[in-house]
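Lecture notes, part 5. Sequence design as translation. It can be helpful to think of inverse folding as translation between two languages: the language of shapes and the language of residues. The source text, in structure tokens, appears below.
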């Protein structure tokens, strides 16, 4: 029996989310955890309005952070999708994504996200769940180029 649940997060969860994001990025990139990456995650977690969903066992094993639309816009932006390295490839990232999409549909008609060119596992997940590339951009904090994806809800 799997004890994982997906629940809405609060501001009290921000430190654990930033830590998980830092570990997941380091695992993806094959590097040591970087305090600069953690600081960026902490700043993004402060955006409002937002939807923060957590994957818990009760430990934090994953999360999504979505910036909800404002001012009449109908496009949300998936800022983070992180799953603990031990759970990657087990389907929990897809379940977390599906739950996020269902919850965001009440606020938006579409969703965008940005992903590194080299993040082939992430790109495969997004494309297998109906996301499609719509252009290229650069992450504002680092200037690293990325691919912009969109999903219509």
């Amino acid at each position: 029996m799997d004890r994982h649940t997906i629940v809405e997060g609060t501001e009290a969860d921000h430190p654990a989310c930033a830590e998980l994001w830092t570990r997941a990025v380091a695992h993806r990139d094959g590097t040591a955890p970087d305090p600069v990456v953690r600081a960026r995650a902490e700043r993004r977690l402060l955006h409002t309005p937002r939807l923060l969903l957590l994957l818990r066992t009760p430990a934090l094993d994953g999360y999504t952070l979505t910036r909800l639309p404002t001012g009449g816009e109908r496009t949300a932006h998936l800022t983070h999708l992180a799953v603990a390295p031990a759970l990657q490839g087990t389907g929990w990232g897809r379940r977390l994504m599906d739950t996020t999409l269902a919850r965001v549909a009440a606020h938006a008609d579409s969703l965008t996200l940005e992903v590194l060119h080299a993040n082939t596992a992430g790109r495969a997940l997004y494309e297998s769940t109906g996301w499609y590339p719509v252009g290229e951009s650069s992450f504002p904090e680092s200037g690293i180029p990325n691919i912009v994806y969109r999903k219509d809800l």
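The translated text above is only one of many valid answers, since several sequences can fold into similar shapes. The first helix runs from residue 14 to 29.
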